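Appendix B, Record 12. Input sequence as logged:
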Amino acid sequence: MPARRTLLIPALLDDWFPLLQYAFSSDNWEPVLLTEDQGLADLGLRYFHNELCYPVFLIAGQVLSALASGKYDPARCGVLMGQAGDECRGSCGIRLTRRALDKAGYPQVALLSLNVRGIDRDTGLPITPIMVRRALAAAVWGDTLAILRNQTRPYELHPGEAESLWRTWMKTLGDSLRQGKSLTCRQIMARCREMTAAFRQVETVPRKVQRVAVVGEIYTKYCHLGNWDLERYLAAEGCETGVGGITWYALYYMDSHAMKGSVPQRKLYRLLARFLGSVQREMLDILNGAGYHTLPPFARMKRQAEGLAPLNCTVADGWLIAAEAAAWARLGCRKILCVQPFACLPGHIFGKGQYAALQRKLPGTRLVSVDYDASTGPGTVESRIRMLLDEDLEPDF
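Logged structural output:
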């Protein structure tokens, strides 16, 4: 059997990719999660106009930086890029990155498209049953761990214990995924119970902390490169951070974007959404039963969003932004950061365009919009975040 080629995976989902990467392991590909984080925007800007979507040239910069490091043989490398396949300009990212790789002297590097919309069929990564099983486990475990860590860290008696426990479980679960173990629904939930019990053992002390929710575009919400280490910044400020898990995003995608295909495809996604929804509810029952607060199950969250945003607004992150913001406000996270990459046209029209109306519909809650871009200084971003953190809100509504 020929040696496996290296599949480079650019950063996107910080709390999930350390697990999700194993879903892309196969006889042909060995996944490697990229960690380069210095000078990426400047490198990407050598090949792209600065008004292009910020995440696109961050991703391209990370790929080019990894190839230039000498750690990988370009002739035996591929790059995996996810594509939503809607009106997002990032859906052109794979073609733009192809041009950048060719110009940089890496025409031999393969580009693989990860999508369920039939985009760029000649470069599509085949989706197999074992990939789906591993991805399901990684999504559920990643959601569970992120919720447990974020709600334990601000109150821990011994600083760093929650983060250390998160890393320990990431390694344990990564080993299971690599070996293809514990992938039945029953075993996935058993792991969730074990993780929850482990975090319950962390010594905590009562503290008065600010609870801040983060909503917005997927890359800037979930990736430290896109949001300039926002999670660590909020943690250093002693905040309890609320960020919606990837199962909510997956269900939103199935509910809206994936429904634009053929009739058989739509039927398939309805079945998948029904199954994932039941798995998500079981996960939330475990967390809620142990005293952790979470966003409501996707179907309920969507019903609660009626009147807050048009539910036929499914471009980019669409109504999911408003739904998550309202759900976090109901949970007591009344300070909400709405993050977007500059030059994301769908995000600004269908995301940012909701904020003023949403602010009026959520009395006692403060929404602050933050844009990330290569031409924006850190002082500008931090001042807007500080404006939110330093504001005294009226008593709970």
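The first strand starts at residue 5 and ends at 9.
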